[in-house]
Amino acid sequence: MIDLGYSLSRRFPDPPQTDYRTADVHALRHDLFCGDVYLADTKADRELSTAWGWVPVLDFAWALCDIVEQLDQDPRGSRSHRPQYAELDFTESTDRMVFERRFGWVDITADWMPADEPPLTFSHSALRREARDFLHDLIADLTDMHDGLADNPVIWDLQARFRRT
Fold first, then answer.
1. What is the CA radius of gyration of the chain?
2. How many structural domains is the chain composed of?
């Protein structure tokens, strides 16, 4: 089972003058809502997590949804034996997460994992569902915390693009 989560940083708060209603894509993806994220396999009791405090959590959720869709480009879907790859890079460092889909399974590794540690492995459909749920839950939390964010057209478009499955 997949568990995705986040925590917001107290060290990197959003600027107090931020107008969330009109914040543009760049601000929403890169400048606001910094913290840490984790992706866990609850069955295997293993996780990949950041501990940097500066990861833009909305960008992580958004990028994860994009990556899951990128990994679904082969028309043969879960029957495809050809590996499909995608990367999620963290802009403030050289670290990245690598996603490899083969058949209906996605292996996830990160540069900061020990070399001998096996990847986290999830079914593609479960990862898609959990990534979208995480995005919608995160947006719900952020709109509760920040006045005007629920009225931002970028947020509307994001929710429409990645509907819950």
1. 16
2. 1
Q: Which of 119, 89, 125 is CA-nearest to residue 107? A: 119
Report the greatest alpha carbon distance in the chain: 51
**Domain membership of residue 119 as a residue range:** 2-161
Q: Show Cβ contacts of residue 144 under 8 Å, excluding neighbours closer than 6 positions.
A: none
Closest-CA residue to 8 (of 75, 57, 61, 78) = 57
For tokens 């939390």, the residue is: 141
> Which residues neighbour 142 within 8 Å (Cβ) at sequence distance 6 or greater?
33, 58, 149
Q: What is the pTM of this model?
A: 0.94
Cβ–Cβ under 8 Å, residues 8 and 36: no
Degrees to nearest 5, angle at CA 113 with 100 and 41: 65
State the DSSP code for 12.
Answer: S
- Residue with the bigger pLDDT between 77 and 140: it is 140
